[in-house]
Amino acid sequence: MTVLETLTALVTETVADAAGEWDVAGEIPAGVLRGLGAKGVLCAEAAPEFGGLGLSGTDNGALTAHTGTLCSSLRSVMTSQGMAAWTIQRFGDPAQRARHIGRLTGGDLAAVAFSEPGAGSDLAAMATEIRREGGGIVVDGTKTWITVAGYADLIVVFGHHEGGGAVALVPASAPGVRVTRVPEPLGCRAAGHATVVLDNVRLPEENLLAVAGQPLAMLTTIALTYGRLSVAWGCVGILRACLTAVARHAAQREQFGKPLLGHQLVARHLAELYAAERTATFACERASRSWDSGSPEQVPASVLAKHVAAGNAARGAASAVQVLASAGAAGGHVVERAYRDAKLMEVIEGSNEICQLMLAEHAASSAG
């Protein structure tokens, strides 16, 4: 078996039929997450020199999609962990990379903190401050809707610093850190969404990544490119789960003396789901090839993939609920979860509207 096949089998075995139970409970057992993390699943692109598996973006995308097919909450943890490792790998010095990425490939869990009460789509409006003081750093601010923060050992915090931006690595156990879970979120209910209050958190200067002072917009764009591509692949997984559920139900369920699939309006839903999954997959594959090659197109390609995949997943999940009707309306059912999870994907890592603005800007610049 290839490394990808081994990891895919491990995720299948670990999730089994527990995703619905995790969703209803709003929690994935911490031992499950730490076990997958220690086996390299949660940040599989991390370099082998840091204890990672060194998967390509394309192979990691396939793993992410498979995980999204089974459990979007677990996929969200994978996105967060991978984005944290990527951020440290890009922005840290050699000592920071060795120490902190090694933690993430060893079982520790990480959240990445961008959004705030006054800064969602407009990340330049962040109020969080990271400043040098007394030979160390001090972090002050409030971060909202932070995925995995409810489980995290480490929180990767973006904020303003000396006229630019910075990234601080904040232990969740540090004095002044308060983490409060979001009760009953709309989607990805077991992904550990939380509000993080950082009240005069004092840390050694080594917890400030080496890029301190660079433009905040550049730092967030680099990190979010990874996150958008991961979310896009997760949406492909949602579409595949819905496609499977609809195909099976439409073939087995009979109404008016024939299978649902024999009714043209139902067959249309299945056809559109198939087209949505294929379109999203092609967009993600192109973006991952750009990522792996280091192409300058990787940023717009990741935005396109995220926009197409999230929109398709939301519409596709709605169609799946329509076809399954009451059979798919129970809490924790695969299409009921997909309906809620997919809608959230249209908001996170760049809302539909932000993606459209970015794509319009790219199209205008490309046209000269």
How would you describe the overall organization of this protein?
This protein has 368 residues and is of the alpha+beta class. It has eleven helices and nine strands. The strands form three sheets. It has a four-stranded antiparallel β-sheet with strand order 2-3-7-6, with no helix packed on it. A three-stranded mixed β-sheet has the order 1-4-5. A two-stranded antiparallel ribbon has the order 8-9. Helix 7 packs parallel to helix 9. The longest helix is centred in the middle third of the chain and has 37 residues. It starts with a helix and ends with a helix. The mean pLDDT is 95.
Salient structural properties:
368 residues; alpha+beta; four-stranded antiparallel beta sheet; three-stranded mixed beta sheet; 9 strands; globular
- Return residue spans where pLDDT drops below 50 for at least 5 consecutive residues: none
Shape: globular
Largest sheet, order of strands side by side?
2-3-7-6
Radius of gyration: 20 Å
**What's the story with the biggest beta sheet?**
4 strands, antiparallel
Report how far the terminal alpha carbons are from each other: 48 Å
Number of strands: 9
SSE order and pairing:
Layout: H1 3-15, H2 19-25, H3 30-38, H4 57-70, H5 72-91, H6 94-104, E1 110-113, E2 129-133, E3 136-146, E4 154-161, E5 164-171, E6 177-181, E7 194-204, H7 216-252, E8 254-255, E9 258-259, H8 264-293, H9 298-324, H10 334-345, H11 352-366
Parallel strand pairs: 1-4
Antiparallel strand pairs: 2-3, 3-7, 4-5, 6-7, 8-9
Helix pairs in contact: 1-4, 4-5, 4-7, 5-6, 5-7, 7-8, 7-9, 7-10, 8-9, 9-10, 9-11
